[in-house]
Each structure stands twice: as C-alpha cells, then as structure tokens.
Amino acid sequence: MSDMLAIGASGLRAYQVALNTVSENIANAGTAGYSRRTTNIKEVASIGGVSAQSIGSGEGAAVVGVQRAGDMFKQAEVLSSGADLAKTSTSVGWLDRIETSLSGSVLGTRLSSFFTSATTLAGDPTSTAARSAMLESASGVASAFSETGASLDRVSADLDTTTRDTVSSLNSLAATLARINTGLGRAAAGTAGNAALLDQRDQTLEAMSALTDVNVSYDNAGRASVHVGGSGGPLLVDGNTAATVGYSRNSAGTIAFRVLTGVTESTLTPVGGALAGIVDGAQRIADARVQLQGIAQNFVDGVNAVQAGGRDLDNNSGAAMFAIDPSQGTAQVSVTLDDPRGIAAAAVGGGQRDNSNLAAFASLRTTGNYENNVVDMTTTNASALAQRKSVADAQQTIRDTAVSARDSLSGVDLDTEAVDLMRFQQAYSATSRVIQVARDTIQSIIDIR
User: What is the pTM assigned to this prediction?
Assistant: First the structure.
C-alpha cells in the first residue's frame, strides 16, 4: 500500500505541474511573443528489471521537463520577412517626405507664373503694373525654391535623428540579447524559466530584424549568435558579448555603418531592416537636394544673364534679379531687384517701349527646361514611392503568412487548452482518489492489527 500511496503522490505532483502549465498558457493567450508550453510526464520505471515480484509494479510518474513549442526555421522566416518589410516601409516613409517637400511649395506653378508674367510685360513694357507683377512672380519663385530646399534640409536633419535613434535601439537590443544569453547559460533546460528566456530571446531577435537583417545561429543551450548584414557580415552578438554599431555621414549625404568590437572596427552594409531603408532614403534625399540646387542655380544664372543683356526702363544695364547662397542651405534663392523699373525689357539701344530682351526670357524658359525638370523630379519620386508601396503590400502579406505559420505551432489555442485543463483536472482528481484509497486501506490494515 505504501507503493500505491507513493505512486498516487507522484501522479498528484505531475498533474499539478501540468495544470500550472495549462493555466500559464491560458493566462498568456494574448501575450505577444509567448510560446505555448507543454508538460512532459514520463513513467518512473523500476530499476531492478522484470521479475516475478516487479511485474506491473512501476513507481509512478514524474515531470521530466516543460517543453516550449516552436520551430527555428519558421522563426527564421519571420525574421527574414520582417527585415524585408521594414526596409521597404522605411524607404516608403522617406520617399513620402520627399514628395511632400517637392509638392508643398508648388514650385512648378510659381516658375510658370514667372515666365508668363514676362510674356505679359512684353505686351506693354512700360506698364508699371505689369513690371510689379513680374517682380511679385519673381518673389514667389524665390520663396518656392527656398521653401522646397528648406523642407528637404529638414528631412535630411530628421533622417540623421532617426538614424541615431535606430542605431541606439539596435545597440540596446544587442546588449539585451547578450544578457538573455547569459541567463540561458545558467537556466536548466526544460524549466519554465528557460522557456521564458527563450521567448525573450525570440522577441529580441524579431525586434532586431526590424532594424537590420540578422543571421542567427544557436548553441545547445539556445544562446544566439548574431551576424548583421548577411551571414558574412560582422558579428554583433556572440554569447554574452555584444558589439556596438556606429554611423557616419559624409558631405554627399551617404551614410556608413560600422560595428565596433573592442578596438576592432568592421563595416556593416545592411541589406534589410530599417537601416537599409535609411541608407536608401539618405541617398534619395541627397540626390533631390543636389538636383534642386542645380535647377535653382541654373535658373538664377539664366535670369541674371538675361537681365545683364538688356536695358531697364531708365536705359541702364539690367541688374541681377536673383541671388542664391549655398551656405544658407539648399536652393536658398532671394530677389535682389526691388525696383520694377529695373526689369531689363529692352535690348541695347532699343528704347523704353522696346520688348526685345523679354523674348530672351521665353527662350530661357525653353532651353532651361526648369518647369519640366521640377515635374520630372516630382514624378520620378512619386513613381518610386508607388512602386515601393506595392512591394510593401506584398511583403506585408509574406510576413503575415510567416507569422501565422509560426504561431500555428507556437501560439496558444484556447480550445485545446480547455480540453487539456479538463483532462489534467480529471487525472489530478483520480490520483487524489488513489491516495485516499491507499490511506483507507492502510488504516484498515492497522485497524485489523
């Protein structure tokens, strides 16, 4: 009867653990990153071998571990698809900012208005009202260039801030993963604590993959080693040691990342995650600023050259209408002509009513192609934005599928847990009854004696 009592007690302990595990699953059914646990219960077999006395006399049951559900290959698909989506989504964000900058000041419309005002003035080159209107249009063009350039400069500055924050987050996650690795080295396999650390490891890796592409390998204890920028990229986390990521940006706007391990420095070339999207965005912002600066400089030089080639209403050589100062930022254009009489409408020797020089503005409009260049900038960016959004939609579907596939194995199904809860509850009640029967039997024997 003592064997029966011990067997019942072992079952009671085992099913108590099983009930606790099911309860934990149910409690964390909505917890992000939680992987379902199962209790492994095995028979405690007799060590003495089979004999007449030991046939059918096992020694009960014991919990040999708490197993965490999961699939490393499906987790790898989640990391990869997440890095691809994060890269494209980040790129979409910066392209959208560029589009807002290019379209917000209606630069193309202001350029058209300026050249149209020159054509209007040609109808009556002595008209003060027409001359004032042209200067007003000139002011509108200067403001549009300056506003567009300042907006792109702000986007560039914001990108620097975002890059610093992203790199800081990646370094923080790398340090966290190193601490988790330390914990995994100390936690016994098959324990609830070990399972919780593995959940934290996978959540950290998923967060890291959103920042840069990661290539992960695991040792027997579940500790993760992480290469960034592909399998041949620098090692960011190795056991309980984490390197740090830094970045720099040159005058051309190109961003470079590096991984620092002690005194060793390695180049990081991200091909996925937010960092890769930032690299793409930085180049596009830099290209847009250079292109806008070029259009503004050519416009200013062209208009000023036309002015210099003619005579104003007082028969003086035409003074510069615009100035541009690269030291103040991108495409910072200002109007330097403040007197409407200073517009050089006439050719040299043409007289006050001559409008010959205004024809040069019409020619400049065609040869300079300023309006079309602005339109091309805007439409090229818009086309790239639309294409990236289409890719992002497809990548979102791919990632959602990968997450669903992973969660189908590791996620908590409340219906299944409810069945297990009833099953283990019945088993727990039954083993309690076994103990009660054993006690009653022992008491009956004692009473007989």
Answer: 0.85
